[in-house]
TrEMBL record:
This is Tetratricopeptide repeat protein 5 OB fold domain-containing protein. It comes from the Eukaryota. It holds the Pfam family TTC5_OB. Keywords: Repeat, TPR repeat. InterPro entries: TPR-like_helical_dom_sf, TPR_rpt, TTC5_OB, TTC5_OB_sf, Ycf3. SUPFAM superfamilies: TPR-like. It comes from Aphis glycines. Residues 347-458 form the Tetratricopeptide repeat protein 5 OB fold domain.
Length: 466
């Protein structure tokens, strides 16, 4: 999900009403109308069946992406015209049975065509005006407004429907819209992302076997992880994706596998990440992003391993010259006691060869950058570090602004490094190397100086819209 920034503050009832006025001057009626659920509606039942057939055809056409897409689109347009003709022919009888339901079905028919037109918005607006408790109509109206990038109005529709009941589809859509870039500001980003998680949780609670709800929850956790960089959020995201895969229907969704791959990649669980991207490309062969992401990750892992094994392809004599000048002064502020929650502590400067797997508390390492690994994506920024003993290690830095990373020859000190031994496999390839993961670039010292705040940037998780 991506887009331009717009201010949004729909918290107050005043703002809700303003958004509502945009929907063709819609004013909701009081819920005092007699329920029409028990009425006999043969015409509407017939129209609903043909609209459902239309939706099924469209869904199958989108999922089975082949060279026949343009041909299927022509057939779809003909089917839409046919259904609209039937709608017009049966309008009088259908309106007599249930006017709100007729406008809902008419709006659903229009919504199949892309881009969505104003006629679609108009008839769906009439449907919710006539029956404010019609959750499906609210949802369809909200989704159509999303396609028109009228995100504030779409958000209002989803929220307004909650006054009349809850359904998992609307809760899922609310979770997605809360992450929409155009609705995020510096003031509400944390609140919106947390709300997105809560809405997705509610959807899961309504049906714990629905894989799509679990997938949306995984996306919500992943979005917040990119903002807060808490390992717990990443684990929750991955766990949600795993539960989504248990649903046979959801497991056929390429987006689910791709987003799971993104989470696994950030967790440096590379074997599973590669398999997820592969599965996404298999399920949706025409989605080039999935295939390219898989290929880029393979290239990244291959290059990283090769450069680590060859110490940046720098000759031994040159390595000696680069590292012989390293001394305690290059530790910068870590050459003195630093303030921690346990008081003032002096970090022990140790060689790279003495690092233990996991968190190395009260330790600091220092070395020279001997190479920078090319990566199609800016995150992570990866380089190889060689210390005075000529030991080499890979360093992956997350949340670093593009173009702000250390370059070849820079001296880098890393406090309390977290060491991971990468061991990934894909087909006949194996990738193995030790790696230090740095989530907070501000903790690094480069050429005796602290990394400045302008060098930090948070990546953004972009998922497909509904």
């Amino acid at each position: 999900m991506s887009g331009n920034r717009l201010s949004d503050d729909d918290k107050s009832e005043t703002n809700y009403n303003q958004n509502l006025e945009k929907l063709n001057g819609l004013n909701l009626q009081e819920e005092n109308e007699v329920s029409e659920q028990d009425k006999c509606t043969p015409t509407l039942d017939y129209l609903q069946s043909i609209v459902e057939e239309l939706y099924l055809f469209n869904k199958n056409s989108l999922e089975n992406n082949t060279e026949k897409v343009s041909y299927n689109k022509e057939i779809l347009n003909e089917k839409v015209k046919h259904v609209l003709t039937l709608m017009k022919t049966n309008e009088e009888a259908a309106v007599a049975e249930n006017k709100a339901q007729y406008f809902f079905l008419l709006g659903k028919t229009w919504s199949v065509t892309q881009p969505v037109n104003e006629e679609c918005i108009n008839v769906l607006s009439k449907a919710v005006k006539l029956n404010p408790t019609h959750l499906d109509a609210w949802n369809s109206l909200g989704e159509c407004l999303v396609h028109l990038k009228r995100f504030s109005e779409a958000k209002y529709c989803f929220l307004a429907s909650l006054k009349h009941g809850k359904c998992k589809v609307i809760l899922r859509n609310l979770s997605i819209i809360m992450r929409e870039a155009q609705l995020l500001t510096s003031e509400n980003v944390k609140e919106n992302l947390n709300a997105g998680i809560e809405y997705a949780k509610e959807a899961v609670e309504l049906d714990t076997n629905d894989g799509e709800s679990w997938a949306i929850l995984g996306n919500a956790y992943l979005s917040l992880f990119f903002r807060r960089q808490e390992d717990k959020l990443l684990r929750q995201s991955i766990n949600s994706f795993e539960k989504a895969l248990k649903d046979p229907i959801a497991s056929k969704n390429a987006d689910l596998h791709f987003n799971r791959g993104v989470a696994l990649k950030y967790g440096e669980i590379y074997t599973d990440a590669l398999l997820s991207f592969e599965q996404a490309s298999i399920l949706d062969p025409m989605w080039t992003t999935a295939k390219e992401t898989l290929e880029d990750l393979i290239k990244y892992l291959t290059s990283t391993q090769t450069l680590y094994q060859r110490k940046g392809q720098v000759k031994s004599k040159r390595l000696q010259q680069m590292t012989e000048s390293l001394n305690s002064s290059f530790l910068g502020l870590y050459n003195n006691k630093i303030k921690t929650m346990k008081g003032h502590v002096m970090l022990e400067h140790i060689p790279l060869s003495k690092l233990q797997t996991g968190f190395n508390a009260n330790k600091v390492v220092c070395g020279r950058v001997v190479c920078v690994v090319y990566n199609q994506e800016p995150v992570p920024y990866t380089f190889c570090l060689v210390d005075k003993d000529l030991s080499c290690i890979v360093v992956s830095v997350y949340n670093l602004a593009q173009g702000r990373g250390p370059i070849i020859g820079d001296a880098v000190a890393i406090p309390e490094p977290y060491l991971t031994n990468i061991d990934a496999k894909y087909i006949k390839q194996t990738f193995q190397y030790p790696s230090i993961r740095v989530n907070l670039p501000l903790t690094m010292v480069v050429n005796k100086k602290n990394v400045s705040a302008e060098c930090v940037s948070q990546p953004q998780f972009l998922s497909k819209q509904f």
